Amino acid sequence: MQNIIWKLEGAGLYGAGKDRRLHPTSIEIRNGITAIVGHSGSGKTSLLNLLTGFEKPDFGTVRRNIDMNGFKTELFWSPHNGGLWPHLTVEQHLAVVAGKHGVEFSNTLLEEFELSDRRDKRPGELSRGECSRLSIARAITADPAVLVFDEPLVNIDSSRRRKNWKMIVGHAREKSKSLVYSTHSPSHIIGSADAVICISGGKIIYDGSVEKLYLDPPSEEVASYLGEVNWFVPEECQVWLGRSSEKPLSFRPEHLKISGSEEGLLKIRKYGFDGEMAVAELVESSTGRSRTFFSRTDGCHFREGDRVEIKFKNGKSNGDPAN
User: Checking DSSP bridges between strand 59-64 and strand 195-200, what pairing results, if any?
Assistant: First the structure.
């Protein structure tokens, strides 16, 4: 089990009645950074509960093999509600897990997570965002071999999320810690995680690399976990891409561009954009069929009735797309 920190074999949890919160799950989680992604109620927290030992499996087995390798403890878990101690101040939360030799590091984290001026406050006197930041800082201060976070940024305001996330990932990378976390946000997976686990209805529907999920997803549902995607089933490929295909094809927004063309076979029905992302409803002239495309704007803007063509990342038009 080298480099494998958890191995689940048919492990799962019952819910109410005969329902299952987590269906039989057989996966391996390795050293590094692993994201667990899914919609609300999908089973992310149930899976984390098994990994941390907060719950025991109702069936199957969960084996943990964490090498402390000089760290103070195997793992530290920051649950969805923060799991803070109501009788302790902010400063005491960090002191309890840091020990006498961690005072300087604790003070640094209080500054980084903007809690220095709240050090004498207890959780009941903090905002939800401050509680979340304290929970994160406490977990990092504990110096575990594995950090486990359940939606760590959900209560943190948008102006701080990017900065706080960079601190979490940077600390894990710098100290060679493993990080396992649940999230709704594609931006917290792409460029951060080594592996991703997608869960839906208590079932694992993808377990693999982030790159493969982004570039070659097995289904449109799974593809959507990493953001918008242009998904074409085989019968749509000829109409929209000018080619036949025996399997579905997918293109992320940055892999295609909508360009104006007087001879284009497509017309704009609706067009809108938000920053770099454009959402266009196009109509195919010969059939009258329409569909929505996601693309990068590249500074372009179109009006209803404009003729356009689709260009792909290698510069070819929709008659000869890149795959």
Answer: unpaired
Q: What is the DSSP string of 251-268?
A: E-GGGEEEEE-TT-SEEE
In order of 25, 48, 60, 170, the CA distances from 19 in angstroms are 15, 19, 16, 39
The span from the CA of 215 to the CA of 236, in Å, is 19
The vertex-55 CA angle with 53 and 61, nearest 5°, equals: 75
101 pLDDT tier (thresholds 50, 70, 90): low
Half-sphere exposure of 240 (CA within 13 A, CB side): 24
pLDDT band at 322 (very low <50, low <70, confident <90, very high): very low
Comparing 115-124, 270-279, 311-320, which segment has the lowest mean pLDDT?
311-320
150 vs 134: CA distance, rounded Å: 14
pLDDT of residue 268 exceeding 70, the answer is: yes
Residues near 177 by beta carbon (within 8 Å), at least 6 away in sequence: 71, 144, 145, 146, 147, 171
Give the integer Cα–Cα distance in Å for 285 and 164: 49
Q: Which domains does the chain have, with CATH numbers?
A: 4-225 (3.40.50.300), 230-312 (2.40.50.140)
pLDDT value, residue 318: 44
Q: What would the pLDDT profile of 115-131 be if each residue is shown by its tens digit?
A: 999 999 999 999 999 99
283 contact partners, CB below 8 Å, separation of at least 6: 266, 267, 268, 269, 289, 290
Q: What is the dihedral of CA 276, 274, 226, 163, to 10 degrees?
A: 80
